[in-house]
Amino acid sequence: MTRDLRSDLRGATGPGPRRELRRDLYSVVGAALLVLTAALVGVAIKRSKDVLHVGWPPLYANWLPHVGPGTPAALTVAVAVVAYGPAVAARLPWRALLLTSWATATAWTFSLALVDGWHRGIARRLTTRYEYLQVIDRFHDIPATLRDFTNHILLHSPEQWPPHVAGHPPAATLTFVLLDRIGLGGGAWAGVWVIAVGATTAVAVLVTARALADEALARRAAPFLALAPAAVWMGTSADGYFAAVAAWFVALLALAVTTRTTRRSGAAALGAGLLFGLTCYLSYGLTLFAVIGTGVLVLGRNRLRALPFLFAGVAVVPLAFTLAGFDWWEAYHLLVERYYQGAGGFRPYGYWVWANLACTVLVVGPATVAGLRRSVAVLVRERERLRPREGSWPVRIMSRHTPEVRLALLVLVACTALLVADLSGMSKAETERIWLPFAVWLLAAGAFLPRRRAWLAAQAAVALLLNHLLLTGW
Predict the structure, then answer these.
(1) Pick from 107, 321, 448, 474: CA 20 to 30 A from residue 392's CA?
(2) From the centroid of its chain, how far is CA 349?
(3) What pLDDT, on a 0 to 100 scale, did the predictor assign at position 382?
(4) Is the distance from CB of 249 to CB of 136 less than 8 angstroms?
């Protein structure tokens, strides 16, 4: 750890830390101006001709100040994490910290969802005309439905799928079909599933940060992962569940390339491959997690040993769906066509290509914005050591670079994947839920911040204001 960064992380006083804090605040103000500009320009566009198809630009939400049964619980969780989170994260045994992080993230997400009430906030979210539970009865013969799946993607096709079913590979819908088959049918169980599984994303990011960077940085990041503004959409958008599957792919891959024993490395790599295959059949856009996976391989020591097991695992889910009669590539091309038949055809790329980033600011919060600035500062400070040297890069990147550099690289690789998604034009609006799988990785940048209680309070304030002033669409 460099001397300057050590001073910053400990929150020491003096000209250096004060200068860094001012730069943090400048970055937050800049991000806030981006959000304000997106809102003002969005309102102007809606008044002229409503081609945005959102209620409260840039978010898919409507202005509706309200409180609910989750309000006291949300305030309690926020106060507890702000007051005790950093100290508890520093002292708990590692496994207890992982369990506590999951429990806290679950409580935070549930309480925010319950601000809208049980039925509106959880039980009915996944049962609307857009959602997966509308078609459960059409999967009574799963192989036949998979073979026929692509025939119902386009608008005006016979018995067209609802938007979210058509917009995702069938593993997304099959998840809820299988829950129904084991007796956990209906919107309430689906909502509980999404929240409980989605909250494990925080654990997966911590496991990855510890494996690729070090435990101290992972512990510093833990409160920011548990108290994320992203929880507003993690409960109960199915994208929260997708985020967890994708995050565990990255976590297992990180373990595979850092574990010293061949058996454990192979098992972790095989599991990572299975989850990446599943990720690609949950959401077409999450194939971009190949970018993050590549970053993990570069940061790891044992990539060559892990690769055969990884590739073997990746093949399993695509092979199973292909043998069942589902053509992923055909479905993807049909989805692109349907996307432009609907809102994607009139939502303006020129607005959303930057307004989506304003959505992301609201999802990750001001602390993450400041943490991202510090991540860049870490890499700039270490730029000489980051330059490729013959025979040493990327093979020895784990040993050559500090834990701070490795964590900063991981965060910025996730930023890269998010930016690629943005430029693709296939995510015009609604990115506050669509980009959850990428956004959760940015939260780890909170590890670089001093004065963590103040930053955590800012994170909680953003989430509470959003959830109490707006009625989100997801």
Answers:
(1) 448
(2) 22
(3) 83
(4) no
